[in-house]
């Protein structure tokens, strides 16, 4: 098993739940990244890109 792992806050999970999962698996968070989620729509013949949400990802390293 590696020393680094990524944990994603999926729909239906909270940040606290993911942090608890990291702790249970023996990892500690070292970085939090938020990535926007976009959706393309065509309005009046024009392509529009709209943000519809965000994805939160934690990078974890093995605790010693």
Could you please describe the fold and organization of this structure?
About 15% of the residues lie in helices and about 60% in strands. It is α+β, with helices and mostly antiparallel strands and about 60 residues long. A three-stranded antiparallel beta sheet has the order 1-3-2. Strand 2 and strand 3 form a beta hairpin. It is elongated.
- Distance from N terminus to C terminus (CA atoms, Å) equals 14 Å
Q: What is the tally of beta strands?
A: 3
Largest sheet strand order: 1-3-2
Number of helices: 1
Q: Can you summarize the main beta sheet? A: 3 strands, antiparallel
Shape: elongated
The number of distinct structural domains comes to: 1
User: What is the helix content?
Assistant: 10-25%
SSE blueprint:
Layout (H helix, E strand, L loop, with lengths): L3 E6 L5 H10 L2 E17 L2 E17 L2
Antiparallel strand pairs: 1-3, 2-3
Salient structural properties:
alpha+beta; 64 residues; single chain
Q: Summarize this, please?
A:
The chain has 64 residues and is of the alpha+beta class.
